[in-house]
Amino acid sequence: MAEQFVCKAAEFKDGDRRIVRIGQHEIGVFNHQGDIYAYSNYCLHQGGPACEGLTIAAVEEHLNEDKTSKGLFFSDKQMNFVCPWHGMEYDMKTGECVSDRKMKLRSYKVTKKGDDLYVSV
Question: pTM for the full model?
Answer without folding.
Answer: 0.90
